[in-house]
Design goal:
The complex is a heterodimer of chains A (431) and B (368). Chain A is mainly β and 431 residues long. Chain A has helices spanning 14-30, 153-158, 186-194, 252-259, 294-297, 339-344, 372-377, and strands at 37-38, 54-58, 61-70, 78-84, 88-96, 102-103, 112-113, 118-125, 137-143, 165-171, 179-183, 199-206, 210-215, 225-229, 239-241, 260-266, 275-279, 283-290, 300-312, 323-329, 347-348, 357-359, 365-370, 387-393, 402-406, 417-424. Chain B starts with 19 loop residues before the first strand and ends with a strand. Chain B has a single domain, classed as Beta Barrel (Porin), CATH 2.40.160. Classes of the chains: A mainly beta (431), B mainly beta (368).
Chain lengths: 431, 368
């Protein structure tokens, strides 16, 4: 039966006991904040078996290839103007299809026709890191306008001849600042304006070995411009024309591409057998597709992932200077099989957390490219998205350096591989 | 090449294995060292204690624990929050009362942060490991007690043991550029059943003998609906002797044996479970009156063996307890408070763990 409790009066202790009760209640309430942090007594109280990661190097590349012709015409942020007969020879083509016929003197309300011009220059913003050459060279400006099919490189290239030369400037590349003005014929300029024509200029370096890298953004900061005085009155502000072109039956992108672009007279050698090339001029990109065992991607946590590439010595371009190897992350499904299309649609590696890697073209050996962040996304990708990566070089199309690696057709020990360190998932909750 | 199969980094004496056996005692029972467990109706141990209750009782309690672990002068504090008991009792006819309750059976909540290393490519790489496990195995009991006569009570109850443990583990490397962290999680659910019976006999001269027995059935662990291990709910046998021959006072001593080893196969081979024999003594005396009803003052002592040790070492616990029962609404509601000071040791070790376990519970007895 229930225990018997008989009550007696104990008034002397009522106050202290009630106080104790209140204190206890308050302390109990204050202890409601949970803090489970521990571990100071481990390993004494933490009996656990050693946790081991697994290292594996996988011949996982099922497809690799190098694709040339990058960057796409007109999409390079820089133009390389170079005369390095042992390496690369390039010219810049700039189109100014919209020439002004009138001007407002000193930006006033009146409008005057342009009947004469003076002080005509082609002005470039330069990337000073792209200068090569300590000896004087001549920058030559040509009128490359033609009624022939000027989207054909050979046609444009043929216009770099003496009777088309309209300006020049002798410079020492290493001594140039961050901008450059090349004077050219005001007669030609005035005639083009008078004829309501268009101005298309070709720029190249001759008379010595040298290289300049100019900013090529069209409709943006730093685009090459033509600057001239619209009158002999020197108090008037100079006129400035930005590149633009009209290509019949072409898209706006194509017109943008042809506004400022490069012509290559001497290019880097093709990849050759057993070789993947990244960079060069015009630049190559290389694509690698992997078949990674699902036990690694799906049932493990990857803690390290490197693409191991065996680098070959390259002597092309600035072979002793470090260049950045940048990743691209293909995102298309296997419905897209055209590699160029896949690369066009690829995202920059930085979006997937893949950082660039600095390499020296003239060196050789196994190089590890950290692709941890990318490899960790493979588990979440739909199965119809190939696990792949592509590489492009830093300053693609604006510098001639290239990186050469052995492809999957090379001997086994030289092929691209994946080195992965992972921890298989386990159900570890049971004590 | 081994894969860590267990969340072993419990990091305290009381949190080894499947966790700390909370006991499921009411605040009153906890304030008396657990000695009242066999006859306190609010403690779902002996179903016979339900018999004869004439009023509906609703009770709930919270029981935070402030723990301090010391090893070689290094101490570490942690705080746990528990709601170890919710119970509803309602009377039926002819001395029968029915009770349903939810109590914490084994509480397993801990977090540890340790430093270590991993061997990668033959090199040792510094790491930091964080492990957190939360969850418990709970005891859901439905029981009935019957007061057969003025001297005898009996009871029977069915138990469902359910619950889960969720574990997360993060391992980070010092070199965050080359290595990514590992964040893994794992969840296990438990299910088991048991049947308990109990009885109480008044011996005369204020003495009452009490006994209860719990027979465990299968207890299994499931990961994603797959049974990964099986064991039994540990068998428990408890006896107690109560003396209430002094006006306003109740004294009790008790002993229980719990066959925790029956749970051993539920965990991995690194889990050692040992049977426990626990001793309890406690008293409750009527103190000064509050609004016409006495304030109940409690004290007790318990000597317990904890079920799960470390690598074969056995953990033991001594508790000194005290408590108050404060009438807050006449006979309709009582506020119970308890404080327990626990000292835990591990055989063959200099490790010491001390804890303050604070209890606050409210019992409401609506008029029928």
């Amino acid at each position: 039966m229930p225990e018997r409790v008989r009550f007696t009066s104990w008034p002397r202790f009522r106050g202290p006991l009630l106080l104790c009760g209140l204190v206890l209640a308050a302390v109990t309430a204050a202890a409601c904040t949970e803090s489970l942090d521990g571990g100071a007594t481990c390993p004494s109280l933490c009996p656990s078996k050693a946790e081991s990661f697994r290292d594996t190097i996988v011949d996982a590349v099922v497809l690799d290839s190098s694709l040339g012709g990058y960057p796409a015409l007109g999409l390079s942020p820089f133009v390389l103007i170079a005369n390095r007969p042992d390496t690369v020879v390039t010219s810049a083509i700039l189109r100014f299809d919209a020439l002004p016929a009138v001007f407002s003197p000193n930006k006033g309300a009146t409008v005057d026709s342009i009947t004469t011009v003076d002080s005509v220059y082609l002005r470039f913003q330069l990337d000073s890191t792209g200068r090569r050459g300590n000896a004087p060279v001549t920058l030559e400006v040509y009128d490359v306008d033609t009624t022939a099919s000027d989207s054909v490189a050979a046609v444009v290239r043929s216009l770099f001849r003496a009777d088309r030369k309209i300006g020049s400037l002798v410079v020492t590349p290493s001594a140039i600042g961050d901008s450059l003005r090349i004077p050219f014929s005001k007669t030609v300029m005035a005639a083009k304006i008078a004829a309501k024509g268009r101005l298309r200029l070709g720029v190249r370096i001759r008379g010595g070995s040298g290289q300049l890298r100019a900013v090529a953004f069209v409709s943006g900061v730093g685009a090459p411009t033509v600057v001239f005085d619209p009158s002999t009155d020197t108090t008037y502000a100079p006129q400035q024309i930005s590149p633009s072109t009209i290509v019949p039956n072409a898209t706006a992108d194509a017109e943008l591409a042809y506004a400022v672009y490069m012509l290559s007279d001497l290019s880097s050698p093709p990849p050759g057998v057993n070789t993947l090339v990244v960079g060069g001029f015009p630049a190559y990109r290389s694509y690698l597709r992997f078949n990674v065992p699902s036990r690694i991607t799906d049932s493990s946590t990857i803690v390290r992932a490197d693409v191991l590439l065996t680098q070959q010595v390259s002597r092309f371009g600035n072979a002793a200077d470090s260049v950045g190897l940048f990743a691209l992350v293909p995102t298309t499904t296997n419905l897209v099989s055209d590699l160029r299309r896949i690369l066009d649609l690829a995202a920059a590696g930085s979006f997937a957390g893949v950082d660039s890697t600095l390499l020296v073209p003239s060196s050789a050996g196994v190089r590890a490219v950290n692709v941890l962040a990318l490899a960790r996304t493979w588990r979440t990708l739909p199965t119809n998205v190939p696990r792949a990566i592509a590489f492009k070089i830093g300053l693609e199309g604006a510098q001639p350096a290239e990186l050469r690696f052995y492809s999957s057709e090379a001997p086994v020990s030289l092929r691209p591989r994946l080195r992965i360190t992972y921890l298989p998932r386990s159900e570890f909750v049971l004590p | 090449m081994l894969v860590l199969p267990t969340a072993g980094a419990q990091g305290s004496i009381s949190m080894q294995g499947f966790g700390y056996p909370v006991g499921g005692g009411s605040v009153r029972t906890n304030g008396t060292g657990g000695a009242f467990a066999e006859f306190d109706a609010l403690t779902p141990t002996n179903p016979a204690a339900l018999g004869g209750l004439g009023r509906t009782v609703i009770t709930a309690q919270a029981e935070p624990e402030l723990r301090k672990l010391t090893l070689n002068g290094v101490s570490e504090k942690s705080a746990l929050q528990r709601v170890p008991l919710i119970m509803l009792i309602f009377p039926a006819r002819r001395g029968v009362a029915v009770g349903i309750s939810a109590t914490s059976f084994l509480d397993r909540s801990f977090a540890t942060t340790t430093t270590g290393s991993a061997v990668i490519d033959g090199k040792s790489v510094p790491t930091s490991d964080q492990t957190e496990v939360r969850g418990a195995i709970n005891d859901l009991r439905a029981g009935a007690g019957w007061q057969i006569s003025a001297r005898f009570r009996v009871g029977v109850a069915g138990h469902l043991y359910t619950g889960e443990n969720k574990a997360t583990r993060e391992r980070t490397f010092a070199d965050t550029l080359a290595f990514g962290s590992v964040l893994d999680s794992s969840r296990v659910t438990y299910f088991g059943t048991a049947l308990s019976v109990g009885g109480e006999a008044t011996l005369g001269k204020g003495f009452t003998a009490l006994a209860s027995y719990r027979r465990g059935n299968e207890l299994n662990a499931r990961i994603r609906d797959t049974i990964v291990s099986r064991a039994s709910v540990p068998t428990r046998t408890g006896v107690a002797l109560r003396y209430d021959g002094i006006v306003g006072s109740v004294f009790a001593v008790g002993m229980e044996e719990i066959a925790w080893s029956e749970m051993a196969s539920l965990g991995s081979s690194s889990t050692s479970a040992t049977d426990a024999t626990n001793w309890h003594a406690g008293a409750e005396v009527a103190g000064p009156k509050v609004r016409g009803l006495p304030l109940l003052v409690r004290a007790g002592y318990a000597r317990n063996e904890l079920p799960f040790g470390v690598l074969g070492q056995i953990a033991k616990e001594n508790r000194l307890t005290a408590g108050l029962g404060v009438p807050v609404a006449g006979e309709d509601a009582t506020l119970d408070l308890s404080v327990q000071r626990a000292n835990r040791t591990l055989s063959g070790s200099v490790l010491k763990e001390t804890a303050w376990l604070l209890g606050i519970g409210i019992q409401i007895r609506p008029r029928n």
